[in-house]
């Protein structure tokens, strides 16, 4: 299975705007894989959304899942 | 008649226009988001507009802060914006608050308005405002920008709040550091103005419980639904006023604090970081602060770093036990202020 990850803001500088990740059955696994591949991600603050809904805890993923990593912006 | 073209809209009509004329909207920050939002809210016929901003106009603001011109450089943003809006439409009453929002003034200012628009440019103000609105049951329209991207959301009483989306904003570059395209701030500020009009008029569905992001380079909107909070926070007026909020201070205020023996001046830069500073201070690197229990209690602490970003994280750590002030723009901003011949 292949999960689509969409990155926003400064996170896209690390990962690119989109990437495909194989074999992540839930969001905890996905985040661990991403942090391994992009160590800079560990120091960043962001909210995770799965299929356009933010999550608060580990959430199962399916092959069609789209995961978004949304950092806060401070600028005004 | 001034509002004829929108009254003609059958969904809008004279009823919505009348609601607008009676409404009071508070805009926090007369910057890249606040200027376009204020301009359209004023033109649309909002009865009273409050404008909170403690800053003064500077040249690098002008590409996005379209209520100001080169002749306004050095002038207070809040009062300058208010007089410009009075010229655009005398039907709107504009009340300037040329000051920063802080725990001591936030509730009083917010309480006399119907809808609040967050056009601020820093996390401490965003959290403070979100909590003040939650406490006073005021709808809050949030917007923020960075480079070519922006976010908009609406927090209604009882629904998910800013803290429910971003419980702890860490180190994120500001517009000054990361840059921003002026028109992107214009688009986001206008989306915020639109949400305010929808909330007041009851026309359409506000973006409540959702976060909308905009990427200008690809012209894409992406919207997510905010999961409801696991538990409802109970916030009291006392907790708010004594709460761990960081107050962001300008170099002038910081200079006043340097003369106050009660205040601990804390440099949270890492060992060996330049430039050195000419005033007495204690150095406690952020990397140490992150890993240790809060080293002070009940103190008033003025924190500074190089450019003003890391001090916000340090302030959040220290703020659980202390009253903390963070120097805006860091030591680089302070040095630039000191070197301005006309200000001192």
Describe this structure in words.
The complex is a heterodimer of chains A (76) and B (344). Chain A is an alpha+beta fold and 76 residues long. Chain A has one domain: Beta-grasp domain (Ubiquitin-like (UB roll), Roll). Chain A is built from two helices and five strands, in the order E-H-E-H-E-E-E. Chain A has a five-stranded mixed beta sheet with strand order 2-1-5-3-4. Chain A is globular and about 40 Å long. The relative contact order of chain A is 0.30. The mean pLDDT of chain A is 94. Chain B has 14 helices and 13 strands. In chain B, strand 7 and strand 8 form a beta hairpin. Chain B has 344 residues and is an alpha/beta fold. In chain B, helix 3 packs across helix 9. The longest helix of chain B is centred in the middle third of the chain and has 20 residues. Chain B folds into two domains: 222 residues, NAD(P)-binding Rossmann-like Domain (Rossmann fold); 95 residues, Oxidized Rhodanese, domain 1 (3-Layer(aba) Sandwich), CATH 3.40.250. Helices cover 35% and strands 19% of the residues of chain B. The interface between A and B is medium-sized, with 22 and 43 residues.
| Oligomer description | heterodimer
Question: If classified by CATH, what would the architecture of chain A be?
Answer: Roll
Q: Give the spatial strand order of the biggest sheet of chain B.
A: 3-2-1-4-5-6-7-8
Radius of gyration of chain A: 12 Å
* Alpha-carbon distance between the two ends of chain B: 49 Å
Describe the structure concisely.
The complex is a heterodimer of chains A (76) and B (344). Chain A has 76 residues and is α+β, with helices and mostly antiparallel strands.
Which features characterize this protein?
heterodimer, A: 76 residues, alpha+beta, Ubiquitin-like (UB roll), five-stranded mixed beta sheet, 5 strands, B: 344 residues, alpha/beta, Rossmann fold, Oxidized Rhodanese, domain 1, 2 domains, eight-stranded mixed beta sheet, five-stranded parallel beta sheet, 14 helices
